[in-house]
Amino acid sequence: MGAAARPEPTAVPAADTPSATLDRATRIAYLLHLADNALVLGQRNAEWCGHGPVLEEDLAMANISLDLIGQARLLYQHAASELGPDYSEDRLAYFRGPDEFRNYTLLELPHTGPLAPGARADRDYAVTVVRNYLYSELMLRVWHGLQHASDTQLAAIAARSLKEVRYHLRHSRDWLLRLGDGTPESHRRVQTALNHLLPYTNEFWLHTALEQAASASGLGVDMASLQADWAVAVDASLASASLQRPAAVANRLPLGKQGQHSEHLSYLLAEMQSLARAHPQATW
Amino acid sequence: MSSSVTKPLPEWPLYEVFIRGKQGLEHKHCGSLHAVDAAQALQMARHVYTRRQEGVSIWVVPSAAISASAPDDKATLFDPAADKIYRHPSFYALPDELGHM
Amino acid sequence: MYTQAMDVPEAASPSLKVVASPASAEQTAQEQAFEQRISADQKIEPQDWMPAAYRHTLLRQISQHAHSEIVGMLPEGNWISRAPSLKRKAILIAKVQDECGHGLYLYSAAETLGRSRDEMQSALHAGRAKYSSIFNYPTLTWADVGVIGWLVDGAAIMNQIPLCRCSYGPYARAMIRVCKEESFHQRQGYECLLTMMRGTPEQRAMVQDAVNRWWWPVLQMFGPPDADSPHSAQGMRWGIKRISNDALRQKFVDATVPQAAILGVTLPDPDLRWNEERQGHDYGAIDWREFWAVVGGQGPCNQERLATRVKAHEDGAWVREAALAHAAKQGARALAEAA
Q1: Is residue C16's pLDDT more than 70?
Q2: Could you give the ipTM of this predicted complex?
Q3: Is residue A121 within 8 angstroms of chain C, CB to CB?
Q4: Is B58 helix (H, G, I), strand (E, B) or coil?
């Protein structure tokens, strides 16, 4: 599998042109951003296995988690093939630290509300549903756009992921409505979760140099073009769920996709990576 | 935590699931699941009963809505409960005053 | 093995002895018809007349089987977050998901006998219902996950295949569905171990250690010796239990010894040896005190396993309630619109 040293995404053969180098570096970084999103959320959703509110939902969460991990695997494998023979999906997933992960901060948060200490045993289905909804509503549009990516492999991954995210969106949106317009308790929990999580979506719309470069080269989507559409859809769902959009928290700008995470990611990765890192030379 | 519950919560209703496979000619009964409504039952049936098959057709029916013929040896008996597919407790609406039975 | 607790007396249960009572002519005819169907290996279906004891036995066995699948998600689920490769993580989630599905099919089958899933879960959570003893042991390393797939699922398959011919239709059909999905579980567990045994010294040590801890509890899974299982006989007459505990256990040992040899692990039984005369393996004495202690609630993880399931159920009550409330509101809205 290779040594546990950090991967060097910018190492390229000498014969490449500067723009090819930039394109390759951009492609790898963009793929890792997409892959890290999928893996981190897949890891979180899988925490419900054996603990769901009803058996049928345990199955649904496992399904969603499997889809996300499947997406992560395809994206990591693609990035690994760009990086060279010393790289693999597992090297990227298990041997990068929190500062190298490029997922949205929203996805690494535990399933607890802001006032709970974050213990796994306090997981709240409202947090899970709201987070999955906000992310799925985004990725429906992102995967749709990426079907036309200049990178044909990414386009293929997008086509498959689009089918999956339609189901994830339907599942989370249905539950948003059931819980938002269910009992007073469920409404309170979902509104609290929404108040806590919605500000984290500000990060979706932060335009980074990477995203601009990716979009310009035809590899990525122009996120700015998705924002209005996403907001309209979210507002419609909130209205159907009898939920209030919380006041904007303008100064909340998480930077997870730039490698600056919340306190939660290091715990998540420490747990996820512990066994693999304990046996760096092993094959499983 | 919830306050003390004097009565158990009502259960999600039972639905019977019928699947027609890709190459199939008819829907076959494959089991049941609990859901709050038909739309949810359909969604759930997808990952409860069709995890390994794609492109299948799913029907869900509330179990209480199914009437069945009596087994041959009971043909001469009249029993209103005998036309249910089985004796699930939720098929029989009991007055609330009875509490949990 | 899902019958292993059938020989544990229920707290307050009707005796399974057939009580002689004045039988009506119709009832005698029904009993005879029932016995004839059993003898002819025909299926009993939910609407058919069946003796109360048959219904009761089936309910107990099927619900225990369902509880075992659900509780069984926990020891393996313990390693999902730490699976050492993405492929193994995905395989493990799929396996645990299958187990949840199996529990669901089995609750479904048991519900045809007239008890709701809620009632069965309440019995489990209150400690009145049993589940397979094996899930009261901890999964201490990743190798435990592979060993569970190889040995525990291997034992389960051996038990479940005969159940596909069980006399009660819904149970038999659920078992056919379960068995179709189960075959990948044992293969994946074995393949996981094979990879480790061909790996580093630490991986090999991890596998051997796991085998040392799980072997004897797995043998106990098949239930007490036939001589100590009075209810087995009745179950076998009714076509519920097809093969005796000892026979299944013997079959399992004989199948597993060569598999262990291929893996390169040692089974922790100095008395294990091939008996040429009976064409089977002799094996050492099982500590039945441990088995009865674990079945009785004194195993390493009994309290944790149960507490976890109770918590999931209680913490999820508001979710289930909300879904019902929403559906009721939608129903009322639809009616109002139609009016």
Answers
A1: no
A2: 0.92
A3: yes
A4: strand
